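Q: Structure tokens for this one, please.
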Amino acid sequence: MARRFQHLLCATLAWLVIAPAVTAAPGPEAPFKPADTGPHRSVAIFAGGCFWCVEEAFDHIKGVTQTINGYTGGHVANPSYEDVTSETSGHFEAVKVIYDPAEVGYAHLLQVFWHNIDPTDDKGQFCDRGSSYRARIFAVNPAQMKTAEHTKETLVADADAPHPITTQIVPATTFYPAESYHQNYYEKNPLRYKFYRNACGRDRTLDKLWGDQARKPAS
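A: Here is the predicted structure, written as tokens:
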């Protein structure tokens, strides 16, 4: 029975991903074109499992001006969703966060990231298993690397934080925007998104790991 349920759940979650592409307007999909970062904008890149969920977390942060779902960290140029989920491209599902550093700092974004992932799991995140779903911090410059490493060291030293902390911090590489139907998925397909998130157990696990700090930056 458990195996049959798992098979049904996997099939249902796969349908949630495929359905938006099938029901979209006919003809080849136009490539997603992110907005220019412009002046007074900085970039952060995070991988935390399903990029739909990570995108939602950062969209609600004051000072974040845009989030872009995409793929990074691998060896295949211009990968498709199928390339990435085949687990042969080396890429992660990731989110590029464009923000105004005058309104929100990188350290604050890191706290949002940590409290929206399971930092003890390096085989995937929640119900999504495989290398493309692992959590990573992609630092775009040495200053980000230093700040990210400091927040990780703080968590490692915190007896109340989840352990062991396995999430790695690595230099950013080329980021490829994902297909248009993956952008703002939680807004465009709220029912499918909520079903997926609940079935995946993301919030239940976050509550168990982080308590009242789940999905929130540290105070």
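A few notes: Residues 1-8, 20-30 have pLDDT under 50 and may be disordered. Residues 2-21+40-213 form a domain with the Peptide Methionine Sulfoxide Reductase; Chain A fold (CATH 3.30.1060.10).
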